[in-house]
UniProtKB/TrEMBL annotation:
Its cofactor is Mg(2+); Mn(2+). This is protein-serine/threonine phosphatase. It comes from Trapa natans. Transmembrane segments: none annotated. Its EC number is 3.1.3.16. GO terms for molecular function: metal ion binding; protein serine/threonine phosphatase activity. It comes from the Eukaryota. Belongs to the PP2C family. Residues 28-297 form the PPM-type phosphatase domain.
Length: 429
């Protein structure tokens, strides 16, 4: 079982990595270049996207640049999608301690994404609007890709050799038994829409509210067991690079991950995004908002993503690229995305429990100034105000409930509501 401190390594793959490194040991791992494109067709006007390149980890330092690509698929109106597009990145960044080097920053990023998603949901729900949104949020820093998601927008990775892997997990009640169990355990009910005569129709939904998703941002009228806690996966590409396809369910309802990758193979990113949308519309028609972002992470000396090697060469890599993903969102990295030398998995966690997602302190967490700070909303707390994320948690066997990280009273109430310990909106005395 891999540890939960954020960085995970596959001990049994070291000799294999050494074999494959013979052909790459002389390659200089310079920072890659990127090409990207976006295409969309609107049906309801509830899809939004974010493309922000040249974000800086260190203000004024261009060498600290990273890029953000995100898709937000709203429902019951567009307010949640717009708010999330405008605020999620800032909420994530404020959850990362200052003064970190690049490696420590990347290591702190998965937990900051959890805090940022939850804070965005909490702040939006204060507005009293009932809309909701999916969020697939991807940060590219050099060769490292970190993807966080709630809902059923999706990000896939296509690596050289045309190996396709999902970097996200769909949170649809119809397809995700683990999420159905979590929702019912937290106080929700799962079932199909019942019409006249007791006939059940359509996909599985969560009641009250009738939402098909088990995770989203917003949806205050559904119940807080529909959580904003994201699945997060972080991978490191090799010098060969790769292609990311990030899209709303208007794409994925029409195309499988493999079909989407094949449909745009060999095209530059800006044309690839248009082709994926075109193929989805050809297959299913315009039945929903349809948005696609394609991002190519390209070796510094290459103008295009590398082509697959000839079939009669590099049999070892060809064999490894056939490894398929089989585990769930809480696999703790029991799978391999593709081959060593093409993708290295650094982190994956999909638990909906904040005690698991926020409750592992490491050296980076200790560098935050101020001992008592709410891990979610980042407000300063007096020593008597902070409530440990472990307090009363069955997941605190390896931690003491008086140890951090800490939550303010509002965030503790939200945590309890998400876990079904208290009805949504009812605060502790």
């Amino acid at each position: 079982m891999a540890s939960r401190n954020g960085r995970r390594h596959h001990q049994g793959l070291v000799p294999l990595a050494a074999l494959l490194s013979r052909e790459t040991k002389n390659e200089k791992m310079e920072k890659p270049t990127m090409q990207y494109g976006c295409a969309a067709q609107s049906k309801k006007g509830e899809d939004y996207f974010l493309i922000k390149t040249e974000c800086l980890r260190v203000p004024g330092n261009p060498s600290s640049a990273f890029s953000v690509f995100a898709v937000f698929d709203g429902h019951n109106g567009n307010a949640a999608a717009i708010y999330t597009r405008e605020n999620l990145l800032n909420h994530v960044m404020t959850a990362i301690p200052g003064g970190l080097g690049r490696e420590d920053w990347l290591q702190a990023l998965p937990r900051a994404l959890v805090a940022g998603f939850v804070k965005t949901d909490k702040e939006f729900q204060r507005r009293g609007e009932t809309s909701g949104t999916t969020a697939t949020f991807v940060i590219v820093d050099g060769w490292t890709v970190t993807a966080a998601c709630v809902g059923d927008s999706r990000c896939i990775l296509v690596t050289p050799g045309s190996a396709v892997s999902n970097l996200t997990v769909d949170h649809r009640l119809e397809d995700n038994a683990e999420e159905r169990e979590r929702v019912t355990a937290s106080g929700g009910e799962v079932g199909r829409l019942v019409i006249f005569g007791g006939i059940e129709i359509g996909p599985l939904r969560c009641w009250p509210g009738g939402l098909c998703l088990s995770r989203s941002i917003g949806d205050m009228d559904v119940g807080e067991f529909i959580v904003p806690v994201p699945h997060v996966k972080q991978v490191k590409l090799s010098y060969l690079g790769g292609r990311l396809i990030i899209a709303s369910d208007g794409i994925w309802d029409a195309l499988s991950s493999d079909t989407a990758a094949r449909s745009c193979h060999g095209l530059p990113a800006h044309l690839a995004a248009k082709q994926v949308v075109k193929e989805a519309l050809r297959t299913r028609g315009l039945k929903d908002d349809t948005t696609c972002i394609v991002v190519d992470v390209i070796p510094p000396n290459g103008s295009n993503p590398p082509s697959p090697p000839p079939k009669n060469q590099n049999k070892l890599r060809e064999l490894l690229l056939k490894i398929k993903s089989r585990s769930s969102s809480r696999s703790k990295l029991s799978k391999k995305l593709s081959s060593v030398g093409v993708v290295e998995e650094l982190f994956e966690e999909g638990s909906a429990m904040l005690a698991e997602r926020l409750g592992t302190h490491d050296s980076t967490a200790q560098s935050r100034p101020g001992l008592f700070t709410c891990e979610v909303c980042q407000v300063d707390l007096a020593p008597s105000e902070g409530i440990s994320v472990h307090a009363g948690s069955i997941f605190s066997t390896s931690s003491k409930p008086w140890q951090g990280p800490f939550l303010c009273g509002d965030c503790r109430n939200k945590k309890d509501a998400m876990e079904g310990k208290r009805p949504s909106g009812i605060k502790a005395a």
